[in-house]
Design a protein that fits this description.
single chain; alpha/beta; Dihydrodipicolinate Reductase, domain 2; eight-stranded mixed beta sheet; six-stranded parallel beta sheet; 13 helices; 23% strand
């Protein structure tokens, strides 16, 4: 499969390109594209991409042809880029975020057509392809009494997580016209999503929720533990005089003091859920836990940093053994990102449906919006757009 890769940032350099390169049985990196010419040059040299197949404009890469599929790994909303890929007749692998608004996804749903009779998009929720998640989903599927799902994400600064990958970054910003165009699009989507709400609302929604907790919402979908409603949510900011690490890189996207987030509500099956996302400047390593509590025990998933390829996700199943406690721990070095790429190949070649397409991505966006609606409603923070409409509906029902 000849793949064109758009966006050569951290996730591309640390994960996707190395995995594509070591699977010549499935893929050939046929073209790369990034706004930063120096990043494109360095990446092209590293992966042996001929100079004529290195692009700075997505449109040029699509028009050049010679592709069987595209992978969209760039920053920001990807809805318009997905549509352009489809218009070129190509199936799309789309990293999150798919979009920031339900309006964008609804437009894609209206435009979606099978490509050669096969699905046109796979969303990059690699955790759904993790062997531990697949086994947990099987086990949860046998239950009829999930009492609670508890999710906790402990997020250290991104720079430390990516140090092992030696990511090449641009030494100068994009040209003024490119920046202005991106800012205008960002402002347009911001207005649709949150109206004229302040920066804190927009940043919180865009980065830790749509950009991070959406992964956990996708895991909850895999487990069949779907949120029915969000009853409470809160966002706050804390600092410490003893902080050691510099978080300047993350301040650009999350503000001078990144947020802490909690949310809770009711599952469709009648149980409860609780989500917590904490930005911790001096945490040694990323840690993410999903715990399912049921009448006969606990099923727990612990995820390492996503950039540590082949680091096992640990699945621990606690149950009764006579009058004793039985704990079974399952670990696999099968890499979820690689399994996800195999699934993309199967989708393009054989029409195998992905674990998440547009409908799944839309559901996760709605859940993120419901969290912001609950938080701003309880705090009296003004918000408009799609989230404001959700909050109005929530308050009318109550």
């Amino acid at each position: 499969m000849r793949v064109g890769v758009l966006g050569l940032g951290a996730v591309a350099q640390a994960v996707h390109l190395p995995l594509l390169a070591r699977r010549p049985d499935l893929f050939r990196i046929a073209a790369i594209c990034d706004l930063a010419d120096e990043v494109t040059a360095a990446t092209g040299d590293r992966f042996g991409i001929p100079a004529p197949r290195r692009f700075s404009r997505y449109e040029d890469m699509l028009e050049a042809g010679g592709l069987d599929a595209v992978m969209i790994l760039s920053r920001g909303s990807h809805a318009q880029l997905v549509r352009q890929g489809w218009d070129a007749g190509l199936p799309v692998f789309c990293e999150k975020p798919l979009a920031y608004t339900t309006a964008e996804v609804d437009e894609l749903l209206a435009a979606e057509r099978p490509i050669d009779g096969r699905p046109g998009i796979l969303l990059g929720y690699m955790k759904q392809y993790d062997p531990a998640v697949l086994e947990a989903a099987r086990l949860v599927g046998e239950l009829d009494d999930v009492r609670s799902v508890e999710v906790t994400v402990l997020h250290p600064p991104s720079a430390g997580q990516l140090a092992i990958a030696h990511v090449v970054t641009p030494t100068s910003p994009p040209d003024a016209e490119t920046v202005a165009r991106a800012d205008a699009e960002d402002a347009r989507l911001r207005t649709i999503a949150v109206g004229d709400a302040d920066d804190e609302v927009w940043r919180t929604y865009r980065v830790p929720l749509v950009g991070s907790l959406a992964h956990d919402l996708s895991v909850m979908r895999s487990l069949g533990t779907l949120p029915a409603r969000v009853d409470h949510a809160d966002v706050w900011h804390q600092t410490s005089a003893h902080q050691v690490r510099d978080i300047a890189r993350d301040q650009r996207s999350m503000g001078v003091v990144p947020p802490q987030i909690t949310a809770s509500g009711v599952l469709e099956g009648g149980g409860r859920f609780r989500l917590a996302w904490h930005y911790l400047p001096d945490l040694p390593a990323y840690r993410e836990t999903v715990r399912v509590i049921h009448g006969a025990g606990v099923i727990e998933l612990v995820f390492p940093s996503p950039y540590l390829l082949h680091a096992p996700t640990e699945l621990t199943v606690t149950s009764l053994d006579g009058e004793a406690e039985r704990r079974v721990v399952r670990r696999s070095v099968t890499e979820a990102f690689e399994t996800q790429l195999e699934a993309f190949a199967a989708m393009v070649r054989e029409g195998v449906p992905p674990m998440s397409g547009l409908a799944g991505g839309r559901a996760d966006i709605v859940d993120c919006q419901r969290i912001v609606a609950a938080w701003t409603g309880a705090s009296g923070i003004p918000v408009g757009g799609e989230i404001g409409a959700l909050r109005d509906l929530r308050e009318a029902v109550r």
